[in-house]
Every structure is written in structure tokens, then in C-alpha cells.
Amino acid sequence: MPQTTAAVVDRRGAQFALRPIEVQEPRRDEILVRVQATGMCHADLAARNGDFPFPLAGVLGHEGAGVVERIGEAVTAVRPGDLVILTFDSCGRCTGCVSGLPSQCAEFVAYNFSRGTRLDGSCTLSSADGDLHGNFFGQSSFAGYALTRERNTIAVPDNAADVPAQELAPLGCGIQTGAGVVLNVLQPRVGSTMAIFGAGVVGLAALMAAALLPLREIVVVDIKDSRLELARKLGATQVVNSGTDDPVQALKGLTGGGPDMVVESSGVPAVLAQAVRSLAPGGTAGVVGVPAFGATAPLDVADIVNASKRIVGVVEGQSNPPEFLPRLATMVADGRLPVRALVKAFPLGDIERAAEEMRSGLAVKPVLVP
User: Fold this and answer.
1) 37/68 Cα distance (integer angstroms)
2) Class of the 3-155+338-369 domain?
3) Which helix H or strand E contains 330, and what residues bound it?
4) φ, ψ for residue 360 (rounded to 5)?
5) Structurally, what CATH architecture does the domain formed by 175-317 represent?
6) pLDDT tens string 274-321
7) Does this model's pTM top 0.90?
């Protein structure tokens, strides 16, 4: 079995601990990927803290990019030597999957969070202390190798082959989520207005996608002036610091009555309520920020009904990865999605520093290099 180093979380709330592990050889439908880079995302820290249902001890990481080393005999979509992006997993059998909407997989939570093993219950990872839970988003890529499946291993197109792995890795979740909610779900009309709540990597990815479209106003709301300044550089026409200004009133003034659509990426329930209140009549809120499981938001139902507002939950940008990720990789390669402006690289051994800089806001998108 391949041996490598991984960042292991032993128990809820524990720090990442680097240690040697073994990765099982790929079965007939599996792929062994040598990880070149992997992004750190809110979901990794939430799972470590117990906010998301992933069993521990285990290995997290779900924005991997790397090179295929070995494949099982049933794999046809990639070959050894291919540069690939790793993304979320899905069953391939349910209505969502067969309809080309794997982000709406009926078993999404089981395949990406709660199981931590193969379908048959077998572990894919082990250390000197015994079996480890893996298969986090079908990859557990905080390691030198990841064991994946064909459904969540996407070949990079030739026109993006020169893009560094550090810029490709975030496409697997954060960039896909932010860009997808705009391009795949909201699909704004020419001349419409949009507000984006939260200038983290998902919100800024939504901004980068919106900036490609002929919108009248794109307003970004956050509490950090440094993030708002970055948002201006990436295409925001206006910004609002919600730590000093009422974002609902500010947005109504800046857009002439409220934005036609909002993206809520902060994952804070009270901010979701603000985002919905700010909408113009007939507006749509695309909700991508995820708080701890079970969290609720104080929404004014009469406002939603009387103003014909819509609230749409969007996971992974409603993406069909084999189609959408090559499209995003091409947009990175030709400069339309400046992901490089968000990325800060860290050696895997500095994973705790990366986590702290993400929490503090010093790093927008930490990317770990094994």
C-alpha cells in the first residue's frame, strides 16, 4: 500500500497532527492520485470541530489537485499521468445524479461527510494506531495521496495544463460554489443588480463570475475593510461595511430599492435574514453559506410572501463537475477568473498556521502543498 504523510484529526476539536499513513491500493472503480495541492475550506474546520458529521479519527481535505498514479480496471475517464481536480462525490444512481445534477444527490451527506468509509464499511486509510476514517468528499486530500472515484476526479483540459495546481485545487469546492451560484443558478439578466454577503473565497468567487456579466451594480457586504478593498479590485461596483452601516438600508439606496438577487456566503443565520430583507420585490437569494447543522435563521415570512421573494439553497454551485470544472479551469487559464489573487500557499506541515490565518482573515484561500 502507498505510504505518505497526512494531517490527521484524532478527535473533535483537536489540532491537525502530521503522521505517516498508508493508503489502500485502488479497487476496480477507484483512482490513486498524488496530491500536488489542496485547498483549505470552512467545511474542513467545521468537520474538525464537530459541526459537520464526519467520524474521527480521520483525514479531511476536499479541494485536491494532482496527478493520477494508478487506476482500477473499471475506470475509463482518466489515465495515469493525467492532471486532475478533485471535487465532491455522489452516488451516480439517484434522480439528481442521473439528471446531471450530482450536487443534488440523495446521498450527498453520506458520500461526503458522515460515512468516512467505502460503501461496504471498509476504511481506505490506516496508521500505526489502526484504521482511519477517510473518503471526506470522496478524497481526504490533506495528504500526499488521495484515493478517489471516477465521479469526483476530473481531468484538467489541455488548455489549462499550465495552470499551477495551487490555482486549480480551489475549483473543486470554493470557486465552484461561488461561481456556480451565479452562472448556474441565479443567471442574472442584463442590467440587473446583485449583492454578495461575505467576502470569503466563495463570495469573492461569486463576485468574479458576476463581474464577467453585464450587471448594473454588484455590491459586496462584509465587515473587513481589507476584504472590501479586494472586492473592489475584483469587480465590485460598490461595497458596504456592515460593521458600521446597516446593510439593508445601504443596499436599498445603492440599488434603487434593493438588489434583484443576493448571494449569502457568510454562513451566519442573522446575515441570511439581512440578505433576504434587502431583496427587491421578486428577488432571489442564493444561499451557499452553511452554519452548523441544525442552525435556524429569523426570517420574516410575511415579507417573503408579500414581496414574492425566493430563497434557493445551493450546494457546490449546482455543478455537474465533468462539465463545469473544465470550464472553470479554462477561465482561470485565460485570466477571466483571477483565482491567484485569493490563494496563499502553505506547506502541509504548516496546516495549523494556515487554519489560523483563514480564521483571522489573513488568508482568503489557504492552499496546502504536501
Assistant:
1) 13
2) alpha beta
3) helix 321-333
4) -80, -15
5) 3-Layer(aba) Sandwich (3.40)
6) 999 999 999 999 999 988 888 999 999 999 999 999 999 999 999 999
7) yes
